[in-house]
UniProtKB/TrEMBL annotation:
Span of domain HTH dtxR-type: 2-64
GO biological process: negative regulation of DNA-templated transcription
CC per GO annotation: cytoplasm
Name of this protein: Transcriptional regulator MntR
Gene Ontology MF annotations: DNA binding; DNA-binding transcription factor activity; protein dimerization activity; transition metal ion binding
Binding partners and assembly: Homodimer.
Compartments it resides in: Cytoplasm
Keywords, sorted A to Z: Activator, Cytoplasm, DNA-binding, Manganese, Repressor, Transcription, Transcription regulation
InterPro entries per record: DtxR_MntR_Metal-Reg, Fe-transptr_FeoA-like, Fe_dep_repressor, Fe_dep_repressor_sf, FeoA_core_dom, HTH_DTXR, Iron_dep_repressor, WH-like_DNA-bd_sf
Family of the protein in this entry: Belongs to the DtxR/MntR family.
Length: 218
C-alpha cells in the first residue's frame, strides 16, 4: 500500500518523464513538488527499495514497469474524477484540479472502474489530457502547440499545457475552450504577440498563451 506522498512522487515523476528520453533529476522533482532536494533523496530511496523506480547517479530517476503502472493508475483516478466533477457536478474546468488531487488517493479499484463505466469510458479529461484505462493503456492524441501552427491555418483547441486555474480563467474570459476553432492571422514582429481568430472574433494574445494551448488540424 502506497502512502499519499509516495503516490504524489510517482505521479510527478510520470508527468516530468513525458517526452523525455533520459532520467529525471532530483532537482526537477524537488522544483515540481516544491520541496527540498534532501526530502526527494529520502523518498527516492524508499521508492527504489519498493522497486517502483530506478536511480542512477548523474542519470536521474526512471520508473520501473511496476512504478509506471502505479503512476498511471493515480493519473487515471485523477482524470476520471475531473470528468465526473465537470460533467456531473458542473464544476468549471479551472476548479477541478485541486479537488481531484484529493480524490485520486482513494484506494478502491472497484469504485474507479464503476466510475469509468458510469462516465461512459472517457478517453480524455476536461483539459484534453488522455485517461489511462484499467490496463494502463492511453489513447495517443495527435496534437501540437498553437505556436507551431502555420499562419492562416485553422485548427481546433484540444487541450492545455498549463492547467493552472489562473490560465484556465483567462481562457474563459477570452471564450477559448476545448473545441474552439482557432486561426493565427499574424505575428507582430515587435513583441511577438499573436493576432488570432477564435471561432468568429479576433483577439491579440501573448506568445505565452499560444505556447500553452494544444491544437489539432483536420
Amino acid at each position: 500500500m502506497l502512502t499519499y506522498s509516495e503516490e504524489n512522487y510517482l505521479k510527478t515523476i510520470f508527468h516530468l518523464s513525458q517526452g523525455q528520453k533520459h532520467g529525471i533529476s532530483t532537482n526537477a522533482i524537488a522544483a515540481k513538488i516544491e520541496t527540498k532536494a534532501s526530502s526527494v533523496t529520502d523518498m527516492i530511496k524508499k521508492l527504489n527499495e519498493k522497486k517502483l523506480i530506478k536511480y542512477q547517479k548523474y542519470q536521474g530517476v526512471t520508473l520501473t514497469s511496476e512504478g509506471l503502472m502505479a503512476a498511471k493508475m493515480i493519473v487515471r483516478k485523477h482524470r476520471l474524477w475531473e470528468v465526473f466533477l465537470v460533467e456531473k457536478l458542473n464544476f468549471n474546468w479551472d476548479e477541478v484540479h485541486d479537488v481531484a488531487e484529493e480524490l485520486e488517493h482513494i484506494k478502491s479499484e472497484k469504485l474507479i472502474n464503476k466510475l469509468d463505466a458510469f462516465l461512459g469510458y472517457p478517453t480524455e479529461d476536461p483539459h484534453g489530457d488522455p485517461i489511462p484505462d484499467s490496463k494502463g493503456d492511453m489513447k495517443m492524441i495527435n496534437k501540437q502547440l498553437l505556436s507551431e501552427l502555420p499562419i492562416k491555418k485553422t485548427a481546433i483547441c484540444i487541450g492545455v499545457k498549463d492547467s493552472s486555474s489562473d490560465f484556465l480563467q483567462y481562457l474563459d474570459k477570452q471564450k477559448i475552450s476545448l473545441g474552439s476553432k482557432i486561426e493565427i492571422l499574424e505575428i507582430e514582429p515587435f513583441d511577438q504577440s499573436y493576432r488570432i481568430k477564435i471561432n468568429d472574433y479576433e483577439i491579440t494574445v501573448t506568445k505565452k498563451i499560444v505556447n500553452n494551448l494544444f491544437v489539432k488540424t483536420n
